[in-house]
């Protein structure tokens, strides 16, 4: 595996920071070049993604408590639209969620909802911008999951 496509959306800069640091780590440690696709920069345009990819998604919700009183995804909807367009979700081998643990049951809830909606696994999570330990842990998981996914294709 010499390339890795990362489809993500970053609104506050936390996810973008994580993707940049993850990319540097993957290049330095594993000689893997990343191809990041920041959905925010696409301004609601879509295109087919031919490569297998991992998705990284922050949580922005309104209303509800994450358990039984509902919630509404806000701000990150363009990522869901991109995954649906051209059946891009079929090339996604997993999702990583980010969020703020202060929101308890809503922590990474959007990623969990995408896992159910699209049928790909949630590979892990990180809080806010993530730590170096998060990057190391999730890089290993991403590499292993991509190998497994390619074996099924």
Automatic annotation (TrEMBL):
Q: Which Gene3D superfamilies match?
A: 3.40.50.360
Q: Which InterPro entries match?
A: Flavoprotein-like_sf, RNR_NrdI
The molecular function terms in GO held by this entry are:
FMN binding
Q: Which NCBIfam families match?
A: PRK02551.1 (NF002714)
Which protein, by its recorded name, is this? Putative NrdI-like protein
What species was this sequence derived from? Streptococcus pseudoporcinus LQ 940-04
What does the organism's lineage look like at the top? Bacteria, Bacillati, Bacillota, Bacilli, Lactobacillales
């Amino acid at each position: 595996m010499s390339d890795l496509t990362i489809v993500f959306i970053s609104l506050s800069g936390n996810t973008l920071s994580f993707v940049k640091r993850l990319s540097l780590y993957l290049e330095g440690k594993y000689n893997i070049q990343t191809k990041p696709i920041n959905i925010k920069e696409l301004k609601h345009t879509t295109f087919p993604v031919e490569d297998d990819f991992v998705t990284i998604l922050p949580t922005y919700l309104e209303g509800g408590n994450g358990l039984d009183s509902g919630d509404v995804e806000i701000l990150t909807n363009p990522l869901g639209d991109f995954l649906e367009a051209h059946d891009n979700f079929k090339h996604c081998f997993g999702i990583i969620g980010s969020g703020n643990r202060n929101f308890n049951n809503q922590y990474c809830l959007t990623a969990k909802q995408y896992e159910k909606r699209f049928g790909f696994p949630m590979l892990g999570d990180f809080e806010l911008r993530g730590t170096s330990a998060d990057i190391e842990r999730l890089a290993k998981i991403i590499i292993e999951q991509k190998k497994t996914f390619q074996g099924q294709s």
